[in-house]
């Protein structure tokens, strides 16, 4: 059974940085795609970013341009979302989601319905 667990959320001042982690279990590294989403109160869940490592392609929301990087540790089946220059409007619950299986040359979908598994989320609060 695939399980995802996010960590690393918290309270940070505007302009600060956070590194979120998404640990996956029950799935083999290289056979799935991890994407990051967020949901603010009263708003729909929105795509943040994802990297297709096999194709060497990253997609991200326009709002995050130049403010994030994604890293992974294949041995730990963990991906990391590093965000910097955070803004109050980045406040949300951040989720990682997995599409499994995922073909190496599939396009990254920004639609939440394309993902099969979800973590419980981690709260990110950016104070002004």
Your description of this structure?
By secondary structure, the protein is an all-beta fold. It contains no helices and eleven strands. The strands form two sheets. Strands 2, 4, 5, 6, 9, 10 and 11 form a seven-stranded mixed beta sheet that branches. Strand 5 and strand 6 form a beta hairpin. The protein is globular, with a radius of gyration of 14 Å. The model has no long low-confidence stretch (mean pLDDT 95).
How are the elements arranged and paired?
Layout: E1 3-7, E2 10-13, E3 18-25, E4 33-39, E5 46-52, E6 57-60, E7 68-73, E8 78-83, E9 92-99, E10 117-118, E11 122-127
Parallel strand pairs: 2-11
Antiparallel strand pairs: 1-3, 3-8, 4-5, 4-9, 5-6, 7-8, 9-10, 9-11
How would you describe this structure in keywords?
four-stranded antiparallel β-sheet, 0% helix, mainly beta, 128 residues, single chain, seven-stranded mixed β-sheet, globular
Number of strands: 11
Specify the oligomeric state.
single chain
pLDDT averaged over residues: 95
What sort of overall outline do the alpha carbons produce when their principal axes are compared? Answer: globular
What share of residues are in beta strands?
Answer: over 45%
Low-confidence blocks of residues: none
Q: Supply the number of helical segments.
A: 0
């Amino acid at each position: 059974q695939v399980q995802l667990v996010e960590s690393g959320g918290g309270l940070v001042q505007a302009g600060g940085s956070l590194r979120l982690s998404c640990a996956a279990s029950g799935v083999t590294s290289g056979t799935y795609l991890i994407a990051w989403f967020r949901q603010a109160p009263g708003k729909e869940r929105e795509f943040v970013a994802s990297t297709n490592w096999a194709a060497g392609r990253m997609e991200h929301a326009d709002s995050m341009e130049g403010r994030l990087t994604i890293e992974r540790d294949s041995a730990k089946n963990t991906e990391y979302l590093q965000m910097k220059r955070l803004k109050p409007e980045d406040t949300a619950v951040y989720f990682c989601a997995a599409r499994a299986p995922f073909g190496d040359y599939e396009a990254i979908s920004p639609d939440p319905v394309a993902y099969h598994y979800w973590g419980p989320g981690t709260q990110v609060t950016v104070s002004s």
